[in-house]
Structure formats: structure tokens, C-alpha cells
Amino acid sequence: MMNLSELDQRGGEMILLQYWSVIETIVIISVCVFILWRIVRSVKRNKTNPISVPKTLSGRIGFSLLYVLRIVGVGLGAFLAVVFIVIMERNVYSVITETMPAPSEVNIPAGLPFDVEEVSFAGGDGFRMAGWKVPSQNGATVILLHGYGGNRTGMLWHAKQLVNAGYGVLMYDERASGESEGTRRSYGWEDRRDVQGAIHFIETGSGKSKQRIGIAGCSIGAQISLHSAAYYPEIEAVWADGPSGMRAKDIPGPKNPLMALIILGNYSLDWMYEWRLGIEAPSPIIEVIGDIGPHPIMLVGGGQPQPLIGSEGDMMIPQYAYYAGSNAQTWVIPEAVHCDGPAHRPDEYAERMVEFFDAAFGIKR
Fold this sequence. Notes:
- The protein has helices at 4-48, 57-97, 156-164, 192-204, 220-231, 257-277, 285-288, 316-324, 341-344, 346-361; strands spanning 102-103, 117-122, 128-134, 140-145, 168-172, 177-178, 212-218, 235-241, 297-302, 328-333.
- By secondary structure, it is of the alpha/beta class.
- The protein folds into two domains: 4-97; 113-361, Rossmann fold.
- Helix 4 (192-204) crosses helix 5.
- The protein is elongated and about 95 Å long.
């Protein structure tokens, strides 16, 4: 739960967003009015001082081309100006809203087919992480990380498949989400230290038997999983479904002009996150994912294309696989969009996930 000071801060941020939206609207209207004024002024000037049209055919062609280019140039410049304003506005809005805490009450679902233990452990920066733990029956435990703004219940389906296969699981609410502590979210930038706390919790709570550790995540959870595994060799296997980019540099080259503008906007977004969080940006995943080897990685993505950006199977999955090296496997689910593979292919998804961790830990069935 947020205290009064945090609620006051959040209220102030919402007021700031309202002011920002008003400013954005004023700026866009001002740009449009300026363009319209320029057009009207140009028309009036042409009526007052008619433009002399060349009499020769070549002169008329050149004059017409120049006139068309001027119109296109003004239109293109205006379009790019509006696009730039909108992208910057979206970036500011994103930085403010996506760093706000996302608290929620988390209860054990009725009829859950396996027993969980309510636990908490020390994450990074002194924050307590709230979660559920299921003891291992095969000597291996998998850390489960949910998507952005959610909580541990988002990984219950994955937990069920792993528990049925004898794996232990530790599923917890990420920083400033669910019932975990934290003054802000950070788009995964600060969450690696919480994963380190989860590793320590598993190792110290397993008694005399040493636990082997894997990690699985969805969306931001997948991004955090990859980034953490690059730094903590205790993580011996990574299942990453729909991993997003931690930095603009993670995003592959643009396939169209609008995507190029979006990518450029993401570089400014990196700077805004640094300013907002007051920390140095972490390394892009493409620069550290190669350090996960020789531990295996499974990169899972949806094959359904989205407007402008394409599908995960076209973008992030091949990008990460290239930089990861030979220890990475990929699986693109044609019907899926983002982290919804279990809804389309539940049996195949469960089988592949269990087989992946079995192979990583040398578990025979």
C-alpha cells in the first residue's frame, strides 16, 4: 500500500499530466494555425503581386516543379513537426505514468490446484518483495516474472505447468507492483537487483540441498529475466516470452519511415528515464545477452503483425537471438500477438517449456 506522501506525489503527477495534455493541444493547434496563416498570406501576396510565369515550355515545367516542391516541402515539414510533438508528448506521458507505482491486492485464487506459501524477501535498495513459493520436488526452482503493471497472478498458468512437472517456483510482485514495496517502477531498469534477492532467498531457504535455478518471464518480465541472467550465473536457464527492449539500442532497424521516427523517439525516451529515475541507464540487452552462454535461452514471440512495428517474430526475437549466439533457441507462435501463446497452444506451450527446463537441468522423465 502507498503511504500519504506517495499518494500526494502521484496526485501531483496526474495534475502535471493534465497540464501537459493542455500544452500539447495548444502547441499542435498553434502549429496548424501558423501553417494556415502562411498559406493564406502566400495566396494574398500572389494576388497582390502576381507571380510571373515563364513563357517557354522548359521554364514553365521548371516553375511548376519548383512550386510543387515548395508545397510538398511545407506539408512534409508540418507533418514531421506534428509527429515530433506527438512523439515527445507520448514520451513524457509514458515516463510519468510508467514509473508510477502499480499497487494491487493479491489473494490466493480459490480452487488453485497447488498449494503456495506466502513469502517475502529482501530485494534491491532495501525493498521487500511479496510473493508465493512452491517447494521443488526435483531439485530445481524457477523464478517467474510477470508483465508490466501486473502482479504475480499473471504467471499462475506457467506456475501450474512447472509445479505439475515437479519444479519449485518463486513468483513475486515486481518492484512497486502488486504488494511489493517500492517508490517507483523503472521499466525493468532497477529490477535486476530484486532478482538477485530472489536468488539469495532460494539458495538460503533450500536447506542442505542446493537448488538449481531457472527463470521465466513475460513481456517486461522476460526483459528482466534476460538482463538478470547475463549478470547472475546462478541462473542456468531462461524462458523469455515477448521480451521488450530495455534501451532504444535493443530495437532493430526500422522497416518504414514512421518506425524510424519511433526509434528516434525511443532514444529521447532513454534520456527521459535517466532524468526521471536519477540513475545511469543500464546496458542494452543486446550488449549483455551474449554473457548468458553457455546457459540456454528460449526466446518466444508472437507471429501476428502489429501496425507499423510488425510482429515480435520479425523484430525482437531474431534481434536477441542474433546477439545471444548458439545457446539461444527461438519459437514464434503464428497465432499469438504478445505473451498469449498459452491461450492459443496450451498443450504445446506447456510441453515445450517443461522440456526446455528438463534439458537445461538434465532431468530425465
